[in-house]
Design goal:
Keywords: Membrane, Transmembrane, Transmembrane helix. The chain has helices spanning 3-23, 43-62. It contains 2 helices and no strands. The protein has one domain.
């Protein structure tokens, strides 16, 4: 595949991807705003929840 053909294919794929994104109501990449994820999905929160669950299960087992 020549360079020109590869570039043409790349451009057509980019246009197809943009058209599909617009069809499904997705904004362009330039319009995106950085959004912070929910606090419950951070690695620290997951670690604390796992530790708390282990402590609670141990206490429940011993009582």
């Amino acid at each position: 595949m020549t360079t020109a053909a590869a570039q043409a294919r790349h451009l057509s794929l980019v246009r197809l991807e943009q058209a599909a994104g617009q069809a499904f109501g997705c904004a362009d990449e330039g319009d995106r705003v950085a959004v912070r994820g929910p606090m419950l999905l951070t690695p620290t929160a997951i670690t604390i929840a796992t530790f708390a669950t282990a402590v609670a299960a141990t206490i429940s087992y011993l009582v």
